[in-house]
Design a protein that fits this description.
The protein has helices at about 25-35, 40-45, 50-65, 95-100, 175-180, 185, 235-245, and strands at about 1-5, 15-20, 25, 70, 75-80, 85-90, 110-115, 120, 125-130, 135, 140-145, 160-170, 170-175, 195-200, 210-215, 220-225, 250-255, 275-280, 285-294. With about 290 residues, it is α+β, with helices and mostly antiparallel strands. The chain folds into two domains: about 1-80, no CATH class; about 85-294, Fumarylacetoacetase-like, C-terminal domain (Fumarylacetoacetate hydrolase, domain 2, Alpha-Beta Complex), CATH 3.90.850. Strands 1, 2, 3, 4, 5, 6, 7, 8, 11, 12, 14 and 17 form a twelve-stranded mixed sheet that branches. Helix 1 crosses helix 3 (about 50-65). The structure holds zinc ion (ZN). The site of zinc ion (ZN) has 7 residues, from loops.
């Protein structure tokens, strides 16, 4: 299933399932008609007991009756997760990226975070004040969406705690990131964590460690790799995080970026007003955001 959040012309927002290229199903509306209580926020949905079964029943009902079925052209796509408690990120997690910079392969994942207010969606614009930062960069990343409360889980059981995957762009203000001595400000500007287009549930992703991942700036390919190059896999990352802190439904883990980020290109490719950035991951989708100065 592909689960997103949408807004209709009446200003109402809800989580839904992308049923076909042309249609989206409003889960709370179809669920209510079928006698199933489904919340309007994806984080609340994921916290629901047996949410997968409830979604399947609501989708079945909508497809039979037409209740809650919307034309995809008539709804706005919101970020698939709007209010995660945590946005965890992993540094230097691609073998080819580590080798490119002559960095040793780390023994353990290095974690940092973005504030949840940086999260934006598939129709959002990446915005910044050019007086605050002049070095804005992209990072193509596979993003894990946690599906249930996770504390001290083993690596073997970790994937049972994942709801699905998203395409993400870990947008980074390099001058702030490196100038501050720690990363949180440079990584957390409002709009600097676009995610989308929908959460693809784990049952639809045969192997998350065998997906093509790429980035394009204004149509030019600048990153091109595969998640087979991940140093620490999804199971390892979820288990590692959960030894230290509790993961909650809707929490996001940005799993790191492959080689080719703008700052280290020759010459550097830094984002500017009017640019368009697309991140793509096979089987998950494509996420395109435009850039603009505040
Ligand atoms: Zn990153």
């Amino acid at each position: 299933m592909r689960i997103g959040q949408y807004e209709t012309a009446d200003g109402k927002s809800w989580c839904g399932v992308k049923a076909t290229e042309e249609t989206v199903i409003n889960l709370s509306e179809a669920g209510a008609a079928a006698g199933i209580d489904i919340p309007r926020l994806s984080t609340d949905l994921l916290a629901n007991w047996q949410w997968r079964r409830k979604v399947e029943l609501a989708v079945e009902y909508a497809e039979e009756t037409g209740t809650g079925v919307y034309d995809a052209d008539n709804v706005d796509r919101l970020p698939p997760v709007t209010n995660p408690e945590k946005v965890v990120c992993v540094g230097l997690n691609y073998r080819d990226h580590a080798e490119e910079g002559d960095n040793p392969i780390p023994d353990e994942p290095v974690l940092f975070s973005k504030f949840p207010t940086s999260v934006s969606g598939p129709e959002s614009t990446i915005r910044w004040d050019p007086e605050l930062t002049q070095k804005v960069d992209y990072e193509a990343e596979l993003v894990v969406v946690i599906g249930r409360e996770t504390r001290r889980v083993s690596r073997e059981a970790a994937l049972d705690h994942v709801a699905g995957y998203l395409v993400g762009n870990d947008v980074s203000a390099r001058d702030l990131q490196h100038g501050d001595g720690q990363w949180v400000r440079g990584k957390s500007l409002d709009s600097f964590a676009p995610i989308g287009p929908e959460i693809v549930t784990t049952d639809e992703v045969e192997d998350p460690h065998d997906l093509d991942i790429w980035a394009e700036v204004n149509g030019e390919r600048v990153q091109d790799s595969t998640t087979a190059n991940l140093i620490f896999g999804i199971d390892e990352l979820v288990s590692f995080c959960s030894q230290a802190f509790t993961l909650k439904p809707g929490d996001l883990i940005f799993t790191g970026t492959p080689p080719g980020v703008g700052l280290y290109r020759e010459p550097p490719v830094l984002l500017e007003d009017g640019d368009s950035v697309t991140i793509g991951i096979s089987d998950i989708g494509e996420l395109t955001n435009s850039c603009a100065y505040l």
